[in-house]
Design brief:
single chain; 358 residues; alpha+beta; 60s Ribosomal Protein L30, Chain: A; Phosphoribosyl-aminoimidazole Synthetase, Chain A, domain 2; seven-stranded mixed beta sheet; five-stranded mixed beta sheet; 30% helix; disordered N terminus; Hydrogenase expression/formation protein HypE; PurM-like_C_dom; PurM-like_C_sf; PurM-like_N_sf
Length: 358
């Protein structure tokens, strides 16, 4: 067989990492912001090599950093949800609660937030005021202070009314070490409540859909809930709030980072009937639908019952449930045991079922 001529050589791109490894997508697509495989590829192969640094390499909901001998959690997030106001909350509530929750997933008590507004020319001042007031109220409820901020205005047609960016810092208590690398076979997987409410609430308003019952977002600050868990034991292994990409994305990220397998018992996952019905109509899987007031915890088996009791004693955790366990088999993979006795792979979503949910 003749050798391939130089002009006919096939380029081997399997090892590309920088500067442009997004081989199948030479341009940004909506899925790159969806919290699934495309988002992970963008961060791991483009941003992380460009920025470097040990803190960024953690790739958690927030970074745990040390400053002057004090352990801090530091996080930032941007909010581009449409519509700005929805059943159960608004972009203002999301901006505060989302960043507070990211800090809480490191076990930190949120202390201060920054706030950046990007306003589109022509948006009504009354709308801006409603968002700002919602942010202030959410901050007071969460026990956090908005300490600094910034405002920019873009020309009409170059935005979508209001975008908000928040960053936050908080203190991590001594003895708390939450990261996926601590997950081991035998750990119990607990979810703090009913899933899928936020994503379905957004879709119902955006598309004018009626499901026969009002569905409200679960948007809430989880700092108090996390502190109630840590009061039982600081020896929690990892926490995540399953926002973009839903519960499935969070479980896959933890399984991949820890090198373990996760077995999910599908029938134990608390899915509200209204969400299940809406997902059936829309052709969605509740496991992939976004949440804004739930967490998933990987807990040593010996502490699981006490942590579950603490969750259920808190108003935000009364529907908490054990939904699975960590195994040594199929490392990096999440599988679900179905109600019919079968098993299916719960893969990382490519993009996002419902765009612009936060």
């Amino acid at each position: 067989m003749p050798e391939t001529a130089p002009s006919e050589a096939v380029l081997d791109v399997t090892g590309w990492t920088c500067p442009a490894p997004l081989r199948d997508h030479p341009r940004v697509v909506m899925g790159h912001g969806g919290g699934g495989a495309l988002s992970a590829e963008l961060v791991q192969h483009l941003f992380a090599p460009a920025f470097g640094g040990e803190a960024l390499a953690q790739l958690g909901d927030s970074a745990a950093v040390s400053l002057g001998g004090v352990r801090l959690a530091f996080s930032t997030d941007s909010y581009v949800v449409r519509p700005l106001f929805f059943p159960g909350g608004s972009i203002g509530d999301l901006a505060v609660n989302g960043t507070v929750n990211d800090l809480a997933m490191s076990g930190a008590r949120a202390a201060y937030l920054s706030c950046g507004f990007i306003l589109e020319e022509g948006v009504e001042m009354s709308v801006v005021a409603r968002v700002a007031e919602a942010m202030g109220a959410a901050a007071r409820t969460a026990g956090v202070e908005i300490a600094t901020g910034d405002t920019k205005v873009v020309e009409a047609g170059h935005g979508d009314g209001i975008y908000v960016n928040t960053a936050g810092i908080g203190l991590i208590p001594q003895g708390v070490d939450l990261r996926p690398q601590r997950v081991v076979p035998g750990d119990v997987v607990i979810v703090s409540g009913e899933i899928g409410l936020h994503g379905v609430a957004i879709m119902s308003v955006r598309e004018g859909l009626e499901f026969g019952v009002d569905i409200e977002s679960d948007c809430a600050a989880l700092g108090g809930l996390v502190q109630s868990m840590l009061a039982v034991t600081p020896d929690l292994h990892v926490l995540r709030d399953p926002t973009r990409g839903g519960l499935a994305a969070s479980l896959n990220e933890i399984a991949a980072a820890s090198g373990t397998g996760v077995v999910l018992h599908e029938g134990r996952v608390p899915v509200p009937e209204a969400v299940a019905n809406a997902c059936a109509i829309l052709g969605l899987d509740p496991l992939y639908v976004a949440n804004e007031g739930k967490l998933v915890a990987f807990v040593p088996r010996e502490h699981a019952d006490a942590v579950l009791d603490a969750l259920r004693a808190h108003p935000l955790g009364r529907h908490a449930a054990v939904i699975g366990e960590v195994v040594a088999d199929h490392p990096g993979m999440v599988v679900a045991r179905t109600g019919l006795g079968g098993t299916r792979v719960v893969d990382l979503p490519v993009g996002e079922q419902l765009p612009r949910i936060c």
